[in-house]
Each structure stands twice: as C-alpha cells, then as structure tokens.
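2024-03-11 09:14:02 INFO receiving multi-entity request
2024-03-11 09:14:02 INFO entity count = two
2024-03-11 09:14:03 INFO echoing inputs for audit
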Amino acid sequence: MIATASNPRVAHPMTPVLGHVRQRWMETDDTFTLELDVERSAPFSFRPGQFNMLYVFGVGEIPISISGNPDTPEVLTHTTREVGIVTRAMRQLEVGDVLGVRGPFGSAWPAEAAEERDVVVIAGGIGLAPLRPVLYHLVAHRERYRRVVLLYGARTPEDILYQDEVREWSSYLDVEVHVTVDRATRRWHGNVGVITTLIPRAPFDPKNALAMICGPEVMMHFTVQELHRRGVRSDQIYVSMERNMQCALGLCGHCQYGPSFVCKDGPVYRFDAIEPLFSVREL
Amino acid sequence: MKTMTLAESLATVPFFEGMPQKYLDFISGCAHNVSFKKSEFLLFEGKSADAFYVIRHGQVALEVEAGNKTAVIQTVGEGQVVGWSWLVPPYTWHYDARAVTPVSALSFNAVCVRQKCEDDPAFGYEMFQHLTQLIVQRLMATRIQLIDVYQ
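2024-03-11 09:21:47 INFO inference complete, emitting structure
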C-alpha cells in the first residue's frame, strides 16, 4: 500500500513503494500523463487536491499532484510538464518501468464544504491537472451542488489539457464550461483573452459561491482580484500553492510558507489563511 | 409581455451600469439594432471609426494581421463593447473585428455620441468614465497576456 504519514501499517512515510508504469502518453507538446500500478497490500485512496512524491531512481524525487478519478483510485494518474531533470527522465519512462511512490500527502479541495453552493473551478494551464479529481467528483455527485462552472485558460489551443474530457464536460447541460486561450489564430473558434476576462460573465452567485483556483501564482493573483471585484470573499476562495516540497511531511522546511508548510498544511489553502503572504515577494 | 425600450435594455448592459437613466435615454437616440452574419466584419483596421457596438448575442473576434497570418487578440461576447477608437482623433480603427458567430448588436453612431458629449459636458464626462473603465480592463488583460503566465 501507499505510505502515508498517518498509516501505522507502513514502515515509514519516507519509504517509497514501487509504481509500475502502465501507460504514458503526451497531453500536449511538453505535458504528459503517467498511469501507474502501485505495489500495495490495501486499496489506495486519495482526496482531490492531494499529491504524491514520485521518485525516478537515480535521478530524483518530486511532488506531483494526483490527477486521476478519486472514485476509481486503483490506477494512479499523474500529469506533469517537462520542466527539469526529473520530469525529463519521467517522460522517457516506458511501460513496465518502475518509479518510487510516496503519498498521498497534503490538504484537499473542499468538496464537502462546496455542497449546496455554486462551485467555480478556475484552472490555468497545467493547473487543470490538480483540479481534475475534484471535477470528477463534482460531476459524479452533481446533485449535491448548485451551479458547477469550469473556467479554464491556456496559452494556446494546442496547450489545452484533457481535450476530450473538457469537450465532454462542455456537453453536459448542468455543467458550464468556458475555455479561453491567451493567443490564437482564426482556426480557433473559442474565446481569446486571459482567464480573468471570463469571470465577470461566468454564471454564479458570488454570495453563495465557492471558488477553487489552480495555476501559476501570478494567474491566481489576478484571478482572486477579479473574484473580489465580483463580490466573492476571500473565505470563499481556495487556491493550490506550489513550493519546493521534499520530505512531504513538514519536517525538512523546504516548503515553508510563512508559518505553514505547503506539503502538510497545503497545497490547498483557503485564501484568507494566506492572503497576507500571497503578495509578499520572494516568499 | 412588455417589450423593453432601447434605453431600458441599455441599463442591463454592464458597460452602462450605474449610468443615470436620463443619459441612457439621451444616448439611446444614437443607437440602432444591427446584425452580422458569421465571418462578416464589423470594422476594419485603418477605416473610419464611425460607430461602436454593444454585443447582444454572438461573439466577435478582434484581429490583427501579423505577417501572412491573422492573430486573434481577443474575443468579445454578449454584453461587451467593441471599439473605442471613435472617441479620439484621428477616429480610425486599430484592428479588425469579425463576427465569429452570427451577431446581433446595438450600433452607436459615433458622430452622434461625440456631438452629445460636446453639447452636454456632464454626459461627456459620464461617458468618459465608463469608457475609461473599459479601457483599463482591456489594458489589464493585455498586461496579463504579455506576462505570458503559462510559459
């Protein structure tokens, strides 16, 4: 089973278990998805928004959010972008290759607190990957929520993740999906403009909405500003933060963010809890 | 069912939000309904900026020619405004605007609106406040676009 800090049956949460690459495919030019079969003795489960530490033996270990369906966690799904040595090595893995896996770690999207409310999911770029599990959950338990709105921004049409699923969600009559890209040619027939331009037009009640945001920090910064302008309070907004997580247990201190550790207290924070820190440079 | 007057329908457009009713009545005298087929152009770069549009239905792409391809710089949809070049000399458009879908819109005669601004400076100031908000929003969006946040 997967090592967790709270599970006494596991020798040590720093000890990885083995994950076998079941499938790997490219989502975009530089972004790929790995499906892993993990050697475990008990069922694996995770909450939307949590992450695993993936270890490419001999290269390094990095945190990657879980992007699969929490209702079918038998297969561990991770989507990531090739940005460094470890992800480059990960991209070159073949079916059957082995990774070390630790997790799941961290806090989750507030799926229960969102019940009976309008839910606005706002993803920028690869930020859709950590939000996909909660989208699966919202769609699977649609009756628990009022309006479900996905606002998704990508750099270009070619950078849109999970295109088949985004198309499928768009086809649901009870899910509002708005996609925009920062730049496009005439071949693209959708919205062009930054993600913040979608917020004033999005159909939700600001008084009763709960927003979940994931994307580059600068994108989240402007998105929060626009939500505030729309009347959404900071305690109705959740963001997923990214920092240099190494131990994932709140011990090493690499991911310290003010008084908290992103690996343990995050990555998902209610915005009012970190608002004073959010605009502090180099924190 | 009561049909809304043009001035009443303007009050529901975000651009005109907060504008006193007397000014909505005033400016509605410069407006009329128009429609565009898919792919039809609302305006062309370099041509006289003699109108601006409030989109009622459909989507419009603001485009610039970049070498031998056309770049879409922004799309504008329901309730949004196309055009502010009519406000400042030399009153020429800085981009093309093309209907991505069939579009219905309110078209405002720019000469008429400019004249009303001249005739009633208080109205002119009100118009400038609304347009400045729009320009600031677009400027902010452009800045975020330039940051290239997903790079």
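2024-03-11 09:21:48 INFO post-check: The mean pLDDT of chain A is 91.
2024-03-11 09:21:48 INFO post-check: The first strand of chain A starts at residue 17 and ends at 26.
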